[in-house]
Amino acid sequence: MNTQRPITWELPVVEPVTATVRNAAKAVVLHNGRVLLQRAHWEGQDCYFLPGGGQIPGEALGSAVRREVLEETGLDVTPERLLWLREYIGANHGGAPEDHRVEAIFLCRPEGDPDKLGGHAEDDVQTGLEWVELEKVPGLNLLPHGLRNLIADLALGESPTRYLGDIA
User: Fold this and answer.
1) Which of 19, 36, 79, 151 might form a disulfide with 98, Cβ 3.0–4.6 angstroms?
2) Is the pTM value of this prediction over 0.90?
3) pLDDT, tens digit, for every residue of 4-59?
4) Is residue 24 domain-resident?
5) NAD as a keyword (predicted)?
């Protein structure tokens, strides 16, 4: 007679990670051969970002880019066309697996005086705003790095709209 109890394995209950895809609209605002960038201090480094941010449910992407640029820079812009569609999937770049963003990047024209800058709802990491000559963009710590040459190349003429994929 076998008095041993059967071995049972109890696995811990693991809740699956629910990723949420966040949409955002970013702006490439051009004026006199320069692009408007946000200076920032993020994750211990001084860097630059394109102005823009998250889309509110029910808001068109063109409206989102106008609202975000106005909040962050004080500048009213008109989105002229979609330049690029970019994704960021955190798990592919050492980030959180649930961090997945899709960014629509628009070419925008400034309205009013482009030298009067100063938003009323700046990002927490934002330290300033700067008009940067397009040819100087590749040498900046512009995040994501994959946009630097694309932005600089706008000085050479129109860029076709394209999907950039998952770039950091």
Assistant:
1) 19
2) no
3) 666 666 766 656 666 689 999 999 999 999 999 999 999 999 999 999 999 999 99
4) yes
5) no
**Does the residue 7 lie in any domain?**
no
Domain of residue 128 covers: 20-166
| Tokens coding 164 | 């950039």
| Type of residue numbered 118 | G
Q: Which amino acid is at 84?
A: W
Tell me whether residue 1 is in a domain. no
∠ Cα 139 163 142 (to 5°)? 20
pLDDT at 142 over 80: yes
**CATH classification of the domain holding 114:** 3.90.79.10
Domain annotation covers residue 121: yes
